[in-house]
Specification:
This protein is an alpha+beta fold. It is globular, with a radius of gyration of 22 Å. The strands form three sheets. A five-stranded mixed β-barrel has the order 1-2-3-5-4. It folds into three domains: about 5-105, Nucleic acid-binding proteins (OB fold (Dihydrolipoamide Acetyltransferase, E2P)), CATH 2.40.50; about 110-285, no CATH class; about 295-325, no CATH class. Strand 1 and strand 2 (about 35-40) form a beta hairpin. The longest helix is centred in the C-terminal third of the chain and has 24 residues, at about 270-295. The chain has helices spanning about 60, 110-125, 130-140, 145, 160-180, 185-195, 200-205, 215-220, 225-240, 245-255, 270-295, 320-325, and strands spanning about 15-30, 35-40, 45-50, 70-80, 80-90, 205, 210-215, 300-305, 310-315. The structure holds fe (ii) ion (2 copies).
Length: about 325
Amino acid sequence: MKTIYAANVRPGDDIQDFFIVKGVQIKTGKTDKEYLDITVGDASGDLNAKKWDVSPDDSEVRSLQNGDVVKIRGTVVEFNGQKQLRIQRIRRATAQDGVDMNDFVKASPEKPEEMYAYLTGLAERMADDDLRRLSIGVMEAHKEKLLYWPAATRNHHAELGGLLWHMKRMAMAGERICEVYPFLNRDLLIAGVLLHDMEKINEIVSNTEGIASDYSREGQLLGHLVMGVRELEKAGEAYGVPREKLLLLEHMILSHHYEPEYGSPKKPAFAEAEVLHYLDILDARLYIFEEVEETLRPGEFSEKIFSLDNRRVYRGDLNADAETE
Ligand SMILES: [Fe+2]
Ligand SMILES: [Fe+2]
């Protein structure tokens, strides 16, 4: 039986288990020797691993690909403040190993079909006829891929159904914000949530297990903001959405990353666009905090987390004082 613990291993742990390959490269080190730099994972998350001194005729290691299941023997070490699995042996799993693919697929906690139904349900209750038809139409056109697509190649929501999970929690939080600030247009905000990352489906390349290993050519060159505006222009025309409404939505998509260095050429110019950005960043960050805190013991700091600007996450210990008294 495989242990599900890729995200939770600690320095000093000896590992002998199966993992799925999520990113693999042969690199050349300072001494001109080649080494394997590989990200492996299971249903709990990912782990970076290295195997030093890969010889030119090591065809097993050199032919590893994303999605391969491998058996690894190695030790977890800490290197530059990051956990790293030092591989002693690695081989592809065979039919005799009898691995269960469910052990390797990281998935969102809710069923994709249910998340999809929840989100289209929100769209169906929109009072604005144009936004309703547009939102439902775009959701339905992308349904097949939405049911498994991740929201990222790594960092946040890089999992089966991750894009829907991201959209759902943003929509849930957005609805509550609209109760606190009734001047916000709920339909516009929810339409923005449903559409803002839709072109991630064409920006990143994913297999049906929700493992995204790469960006598409368009994704590299344009990104999901510009691609999103372009697709919305077409969809808006097809559904006969008035120019002003379409422009508002296009601006929301274009500005949702807020800063030029994150891909937004414009900052939000109206309140719903501002809220969309903060819903987006809040959901992405809280996803990471939750995931990292799960790997920590109370009173412990994490390693530096790249996607949180290299902050170290602290898991508070609310019972600490009670125990010492
Ligand atoms: Fe985005
Ligand atoms: Fe997003």
